[in-house]
Structure formats: structure tokens, C-alpha cells
Design a protein that fits this description.
This protein is of the alpha+beta class and 496 residues long. The protein contains 16 helices and 13 strands. A hairpin with a 4-residue loop joins strand 8 (343-344) and strand 9 (349-358). This is THAP-type domain-containing protein.
Length: 496
Amino acid sequence: MEVGRFSPRKENKSRTYCSVYNCSSISFKDLDLRFHLFPKPNECCFVNVVNKFGNTEKVDKLQAWSRALKIGKKVSTSMRVCSLHFRKDDYLFPSKYRCSFREEVLAKNAVPSCNLPTNSVVSEVNLQLDEDRLKRRQRRDVNKNSEKKKQEEKENDQEEKGIHANNLEYDENVEEMSQDQNYCRSFQDVGVQVQSGDLLPKFIQFLKSDSELSTFTGIESFNIFNTIVDLVKLVKPEDSKAKLSVQDKVLMTYVKLKQNMSYASLSIMFNCCTAKQCQRIFTDMIHILSKYLIVAIPWPSEEEISRNLPQCFEDFKDVRVVLDCTDIFVQKSKNLCCQLNTYSHYKGTYTCKFLTGVTPAGNISFISKPYGGRASDKAIFEQSNLKNLLQPGNAVMVDRGFLIDDMCQINGWKCIRPPFLKNKKQFTKSEAILTSKIACARVHIERSNQRIKAFQIVGSRLPVNLVPLLEEIFTVICATFNLNSPILKDVTFIQV
């Protein structure tokens, strides 16, 4: 076996030693040798090695080197192995393979196999133990094979006897066996029918009245609920293979919106799917509902508003919309930029904000896209699409946080806002009366925000994983708010 000796290198003063036990190779003396680093740990490089039992196993390269060279300590980056412990076949030569490197390179799957160290004290004892262990293993394998053959012979004899006996009885009992077989088949069919999930009661069967439905879902009547289900069926027809019907999926979505239950709780409540499947169903249904319920949030004309004007707006007949920002608490994000955008100094926590517009009659007529809690009311108003909906001469009613006088003046809108006290000790009589009237009129948007927050998914702190769905969730909630009974009673409107 030819070991790794090559043409001499240039002389150098490097004092690199071979780390193998009883090997005295030094780099500045043995110029015809090459010195190699150990493989790096966790390199995910494996080599095939024949173990002491003669079986080939795949081992980590560093472990294979350490085992072959009997390295009894942790391998460091300064340790080297000389080429005396490798065969020449383990190297790639530039002249043979026409490679770009100049010197001989060790192959990736090379493992030390020459001049390996032996422990002089225990080597003979270990060799004898290994031989004895190998003999015992071979004897066990022979005994197992002989027992297996005997067992197979017995089984074959029993099968032959059984087949012979069955052939003798077959002609006499054909009719009786066929009757038994039919009886067993019919009994099995009945058992399958009993185990069917169709007999399990659905959750909606426990909701006996409109008030119970409203408590769990926020939808005030079964008529509205069935209308929403029919709308979804037009887009997503019933699937016979699905575990839940469209009705159950819509119900599950609204229970999640109203109660903000965990997906694990929903999986127990609806009894047919896992928590992961409930999460997927909720996401799919939110996409569908937000897309098709947006029509329930219309922008009414001036004629419609004037025909449905409450008595508290008698002094503000030119008001087209009442504006307010709805804050929704969200969990702290791990992303630093998201933390900066969502932190509200006014609230002292992390929030997202929507600009909501309510008609004088109390219906939601406008919702903006979500903004971080850092954004001001003025900035949200300027960036929203509301400026494309308002016409010159329209009035908007806002609270003191909306400093939009300049923008209203440029576009010809009228801004109705409670007066500021500034440096005064108290309001004048006219300012106090105006503040009282505006507060009386703006109470409707406060009540609408209260109804929106009754849906616990936005009334409590929203998880980070639901923030990407926040705009669609808020759209579904506002549309459902408009489908329910109005805030104001008929007697509170101005009779035209």
C-alpha cells in the first residue's frame, strides 16, 4: 500500500507537527509530506466506513477521522494529520485531473487508513474481545435463521392441512357460508351508518332564539344570518366532502369575531375539525365576507341624508358625515418599525386606527384603511379617500383632534367642531350652547363605536397574527353593524 509521499516542498521554518499518536512527522523536516486540517464539526459531511462487524455505515467525517486515528481529546483548529496516514489513491493530482490547483488535494471522502496508531497495553485484549464478540454475533444469527426456518416449515404444514380440510367441507357448506356472509355484510353496513357524523348535533341547533344568536355572533336575527349564508353560497357553493357546511363556517367566523375565542375552543365547539383547520376557515371566510359585504357600507346622497335627519341635527342640516377615529389595541410586534408606527403616545400603548364616518341617521358610511397609532387624526383625514366623496358646501362634524380647518377652507367644506377654550377662563354663552349641541349630535358616533367594540376581536387586544386581516375584519363588523337594527328610533327623526 503506497502512502502519501510526494515531491519535496520548498523549505520553510513552520513547526507543524502531526497530531497522531507515535507519529513524529514535522513540516520543516519532512518536506515530502503534506499536512491536513481535521474536518470541521457540524459540516454535515458523511463518509462510508466499515465497522468492526464488517457492515458499512455512514458516519460524520470528523468522527470517522477521530475514530481511525484514536484521537482521545477534542479536536482543535491547530491540529494536523500528515499524509503518511493516507493512501496515494486518496489524493487528486493536478496532472491527472487537469485541475486548477497546484498541489495534491485530499479527496472529500478520504479517511485515514495507513500507519494507524494502536494502544500497546490493551490492543491485544481489545482484539481478542472483538473477535469473541463477532463469533457470538455470528452464532446468534445462525440460531435465529434455523429457528425461523423451522417456524416457516410448521406454518406451511398447517396451511396445507387447513387447505385440505377446507376443500373437503367446501361442497357441503357453500349455501350456508353465503348466507352467513350476507348477514355479516348487512350488519357491517348498519354499523357504519351509526358511526356517521350526521347524527351529531350542530352548534347552531343549540341557538333557539334571535337573542341567543346575537349573544354569540353579534347578528341580531336569523333572517340576517340566513341572508349572509345565502350570499356566501353564491360565491362558495356547498362541498359534500367538506366537514363543515357553509352555514357552520359563517357561524364559526362570527363567533370568532364576537367572542374572540381561541381556535382550539372553536374546534371543540364545532366538533368536526382541528384548530389549524378552524384558523384556515376563518381566514377564508373573512376574505369572502369583506369582499361582498362592503356593499352594506354605502355613501348616501345628500337627498337621502336630508330625508333621514334626526332632531338633534336640526341646527346642522348641512352635515354630510360625522367623523371620528376608532382605536384598536394590538399586541406589541417584534419588528421595531412596526412598534414605532403603532405606538400611540396619547393611549400609552400599541394601537391601530380607523377613520370612521357616520351619517346623521347613525349608519356607518365610510371607513378608511388602517393606520398605526402614531398617525394623527389630521394626517389620516388628509390621506383618506374621503376628500373625493365630499362636495363643496358639505359640512363635516369632528371633535377637537381634527385640525383640518385649512383643508376644509381650500375645498369649500364647512368644519363643525367644538370651540377651544384657549386662554379663556370659560366659554361664552354661545360657545357653551354650540358645544352642548355638537356633543348631543356626536353621541351617535360614540354609540356606533361602542357597538363595534362589542365584537371582542377588536374590543380586546388584537393578536399580532391577525393584524394583516384587520382591515377585512373591521369591514365585516361595520357591515354587520349596518345590517342590524339602527341606533335611533323612528320617533327621533324630523318628520318631513
